[in-house]
Structure to design on (485 residues):
């Protein structure tokens, strides 16, 4: 009986030791992976006409305003081979990941977060990844995804807005300024534009799949080509809005 | 009144179209200003001369006779030199061709020009008809429009092929995720191109499909350019 007990205890101990070793290995590898990620955080002084230009390869970009007269750039860099060298020239902060990493091969994702003064001009693009810009009142907001990624522009009041991707949704929530130009384009995704009811603009909207919903902004003055394209004025047409979607919907919503 | 204003009024004075008030002001200025008075006198002399000799003109010289005389003088002068040169060495055929002076009278020149214009027009018309019959022989208008669309796509395809090649060279270096992303997006754009082409084949003058085709081809080119750098 005693012998039997001993023979049972040995396998239990061995199992415990093995499990402990596995747990240790896993925690070590996770720790190593976490350590491989680089964190970047820098602050730059902001002037009256701040402009931010960011060219990323892969990863998310978040831009939001804050109540400080400076720019804060934070980045999570997946690969230790990746370099990020922001340059500030006068009031313009430029980050060119493509240029900084030419010839380095695959550098994985770099996720950016930018906190900028509310009146900053924003020009951001990435080959792949989501872009989110919020609370900006300036001359320019441009968000460009070369391939796939959602674009969300919230609480935007800018004279020129461009949002373009191939696969992914585009959401704009903001105002159309008098004399401004607004361009939204996707190949496969949903485009949603949420604006105040008293917005005045000239619209050219095209979607071959006939999924154009102007809702409260529709009027009898619109000319349509069998539902695939709408051209017309809303109000006095003070600003120019162009929306193109190859295989998705275009929806206008009233705030 | 200054001299500039005065000289403007002198023209009216000479033409007899000046008001009494301006004439009085002008005369006051002319009494004091010798320069303006001189201008007035010159202008008045010219006008009087022209009025006196109105309708008289000298007969123009006989232009043709004048050119003949000039030519005879030149030939007479050159003739002696040519004779002395021919004794020493006869010029080559090319030299004679290049050295030949082409003298054409005005009617000859006009006739030559008309003949050249007619020949060029004829050649162009025949060429265009022949080219047209070769390219669209028996084709209905819809087929011609389709050919135009295909031509335009073909032109863009040349650029796309170039960038495709660039992408293919670098694609092996990309991560599997990046390759999947590129392929997926390219398929979506190709689908948009294909849909637009099909619609245009059905309705060659469809404005929306034409716009979509152009934009989707631009997008394809842009995607290739962007990823060829990676």
């Amino acid at each position: 009986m005693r012998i039997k007990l001993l023979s049972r205890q040995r396998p239990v101990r061995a199992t415990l030791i093995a499990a402990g070793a596995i747990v240790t290995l896993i925690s070590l590898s996770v720790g190593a992976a976490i350590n491989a990620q680089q964190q970047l955080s820098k602050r730059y002084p902001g002037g009256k006409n701040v402009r931010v230009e960011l060219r990323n390869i892969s990863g998310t970009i978040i831009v939001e305003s804050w109540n400080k007269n400076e720019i804060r750039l934070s980045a999570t860099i997946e690969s230790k081979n990746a370099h990020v060298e922001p340059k500030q020239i006068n009031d313009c902060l430029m980050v060119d990941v493509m240029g900084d990493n030419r010839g380095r091969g695959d550098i994985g994702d770099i996720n950016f977060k930018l906190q900028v003064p509310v009146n900053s001009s924003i020009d951001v693009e990435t080959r792949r990844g989501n872009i989110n810009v919020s609370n900006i009142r300036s001359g320019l907001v441009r968000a460009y995804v070369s391939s796939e990624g959602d674009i969300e522009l919230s609480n935007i009041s800018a004279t020129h807005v461009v949002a373009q991707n191939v696969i992914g949704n585009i959401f704009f929530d903001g105002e159309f300024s008098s004399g401004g130009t607004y361009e939204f384009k996707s190949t496969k995704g949903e485009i949603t534009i949420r604006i105040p009811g008293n917005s005045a603009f000239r619209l050219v909207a095209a979607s071959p799949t006939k999924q154009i919903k102007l809702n409260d902004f529709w009027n009898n003055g619109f000319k349509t080509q069998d539902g695939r394209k709408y051209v017309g004025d809303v109000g006095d047409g003070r600003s120019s809005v162009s929306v193109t979607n190859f295989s998705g919907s275009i929806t206008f919503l009233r705030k | 009144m200054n001299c500039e204003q005065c000289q403007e009024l002198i023209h009216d004075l000479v033409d007899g179209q000046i008001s009494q008030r301006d004439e009085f002001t002008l005369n006051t200025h002319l009494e004091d200003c010798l320069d303006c008075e001189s201008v007035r006198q010159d202008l008045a002399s010219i006008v009087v001369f022209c009025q006196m000799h109105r309708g008289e003109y000298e007969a123009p010289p006989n232009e043709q006779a004048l050119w003949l005389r000039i030519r005879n003088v030149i030939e007479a002068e050159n003739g002696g030199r040519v004779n002395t040169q021919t004794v020493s060495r006869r010029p080559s055929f090319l030299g004679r061709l290049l050295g030949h002076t082409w003298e054409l009278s005005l009617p000859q020149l006009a006739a030559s020009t008309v003949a050249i214009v007619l020949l060029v027009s004829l050649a162009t018309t025949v060429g265009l008809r022949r080219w047209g019959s070769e390219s669209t022989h028996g084709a209905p208008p819809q087929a011609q429009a389709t050919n135009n669309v295909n031509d335009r796509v073909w032109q863009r395809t040349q650029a796309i092929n170039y960038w495709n090649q660039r992408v293919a060279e670098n694609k092996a270096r990309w991560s599997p995720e990046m390759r999947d992303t590129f392929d997926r997006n390219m398929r979506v754009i190709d689908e948009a191109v294909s849909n637009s082409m099909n619609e245009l084949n059905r309705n060659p003058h469809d404005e929306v499909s034409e716009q979509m085709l152009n934009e989707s081809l631009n997008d394809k080119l842009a995607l290739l350019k962007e990823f060829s750098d990676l």
